[in-house]
Amino acid sequence: MKSPEKRRQKKRGGMTSLSRIPARLNILMGVVVVMLGALAFKAYTLQIANYSTYKAAVSSNTTSIQEENVRRGEIVDSSGKLLVSNTGTHSIQYTKPQSVTDAQMYKVANNVGKFVSIETTQLSDSNYAGYYILDAGRAKAVAKKAGIQYAPTTDTFVKQAKKYVVDHKSEFPLSNKQVNNAMIFQKMTNAYALSTVQIKTADVTDEEIAAIGERQSTMPGINVGMYYTRAYPAGDDIKSLIGTEGKVPDDSINQLLSQGYSRDDMVGVSFLEKQYEAQLKGTKKRVQITTDPKTGETTSKTVYSGKAGSNLILSLNSKLQDDVRTIIKNNIPSGSATGGYAVVLNPKTGGIYAMVGVDRDNSTGDLTDNDAANVNKAQVMGSVVKPAMITTGLMQGVITPSNNTLTDQPIKIAGTASKSSWFNTDGSHNTSLTASEALEVSSNSYVMQLMLKMGGLNYSSGMSLSGLDTSIFSTMRNGLARFGMGVKTGIDLPGEISGLKGSTSASDIGLALDESFGQYDTFTTIQLAQYVATIANGGYRVQPHLVEAIQQPGVNGAKATLEQIPTRILGTVGWTEAERNVIWNGMNLVSHGSSPYVTGGSKIKTLPVNVSMKTGTAETFTNGVSTTANTAISFVPNSNVAVAVVFPDVPSGNESNPNINSTYEIWEKVLEDVEDKDTLNASANS
User: Fold this and answer.
1) Which residues form the Penicillin-binding protein transpeptidase domain (predicted)?
2) 63: three-class secondary structure by DSSP
3) Radius of gyration of the CA atoms of the chain, in A
């Protein structure tokens, strides 16, 4: 009889320990089968499914793409005269491989340095030290002197050793040849992976080119390429308008690197070169460099031949530009005067024929070209604003084309000094003036009274301005802005400013009088040019521009194409023909009127074309001395030419009239260089 215990064991589970072994083996075998399946799947993906992907990844270790600069676009004037071109020279370049160590670059730099000498003044102390400790013997000597553990492959050692060398540089001298190699090393380390930097760009000799070409297999990444620099066949004066190129600026390096630039690339850094960088730069040539992993030899293959930069065709007439520059320089007065500025443009298209700026150091009398000052330097402009002020009065309905007579008289406001027109300071020449006659004699009194009317007041001697709302400033400024004054013109140059607007608080309400005749807010010369163009063309504000067209280079034998810059209208004045004629008649009287107080002088009327104009004089102070800004705008109605000139800080009492004389001389040159008198006169009569 079996014991109860044995009976219970037999019933429990129905198996002995021996019978459970095959089950465990089955589980183990199952795991093994799953693992083998996973390995087989991985082998399949590596060798079959993703074969091309992994092959490309392997190839990338020995193949890289090198980008080479192409010719930058040229710049020509409206007659086709070449203003900016390119000079190509051989250069020694380095394209940093995708995976390279400092030790490998150190070796290459030393090899290159055997045959190439470069300028070393820009070698930094940090790179001097980094180069120094890459030699094992020198590194051990540094470790011993610094009292640090010699461990050349660690970041800690490199950091400590470099700092010690920098702090004790005189104790660790390099020979001239080693300094040369260190500078080459610095240029190489500054490159990003697969980017190209210039090792040497100037005075590369035939011997250096030959030496590098014969030894490229021992200098991975080093090659001979082309380096382009700007040339100025028509003279360097044009740089002050067109601008220059230079190395990628630090403040925009990240942005430009993300766009495919290299740190060593030359880019437009000012004016037109900067504004049209995208068009001028072209598309880099791409060369595939393959390195044999066994021999180290490299081969190259062009995968994209590149595309030269587009050419800029300017509206600028370089002959007129040179002539206007001479005129402005000759008319800048001596003494306190700080310069002269002028813009000549087409009122119908906005194309600029000439834009000249000349700064004057009034302590030495030295003159410096600064054409960009026309867009980035603001000045009170004086009475040239009066056509816009009178237009605003007409459009506000406080005067009409047929009812616009006011009496010129000194304006006496309670608590302030008397303000008057230049010819009627004491009231002995009080006279009735129409709006056109007010322009002829440049009546301050007329526009001050007009301002008061727009503010809901009529002038009376000794009146208070307490009832004049500060919104009058906005009314006047909006009127000026219709013509382009006080707002950016949109010219195709970087750095344009809009000028400064004075305070408009209730305590400043008296300055509304000064605002009405142009002695409060400041404006730029290009705004003055857009303003006179708007008057000249009948009332539409055109965006001024220097680039007339962009010539796109052809690809694969295709012809170049021309992209014309369209005329862009930014707004309209909105006046009636009768209102416009009030302004045109008044500005014609400035240059051709018979009043004893006519402000245009007698010179302008002798021109063979019927030029209308408005002059301006604004009181300023220069170095504590009373001075004036002398300005002028001029045009032939409906024609293709308008002119604006500004001479700031002219000594008070100066009788040279630089604004009028330069205007006359500029129109003489316009008739020689741009338009003939018959065309201009015909347009005026149309």
Assistant:
1) 340-654
2) strand
3) 38
pTM equals: 0.82
Please state the domain extents for the chain: 63-96+193-314, 98-190, 318-547+566-684
Residue 205 has a CB neighbour count (10 Å cut-off) of: 13
Q: Please list, in sequence order, all residues whose beta carbon lies within 8 angstroms of the beta carbon of residue 44, skipping any fewer than 6 positions away.
A: none
What CATH class does 98-190 carry?
Answer: mainly alpha
Assign domain 318-547+566-684 to a CATH class. alpha beta
SS3 at position 527: helix
Place of tokens 């001298």: 173
* Residue 77 φ then ψ, to 5°: -90, -175
Round to whole Å and give the CA distance between 445 and 448. Answer: 5
- Mean pLDDT per block of 10 residues along the chain (686 residues) reads 46 48 70 76 65 52 71 94 93 86 93 95 94 94 93 90 95 96 93 83 91 86 87 93 86 75 81 94 82 66 87 97 97 94 97 97 94 96 98 98 97 93 94 97 97 97 95 97 97 96 94 96 98 97 97 77 93 97 97 93 91 94 87 95 96 88 97 88 69
CB 332 within 8 A of CB 647: yes
Cβ atoms of residues 174 and 130 within 8 Å: no
Specify the CATH class of 63-96+193-314 in words: alpha beta
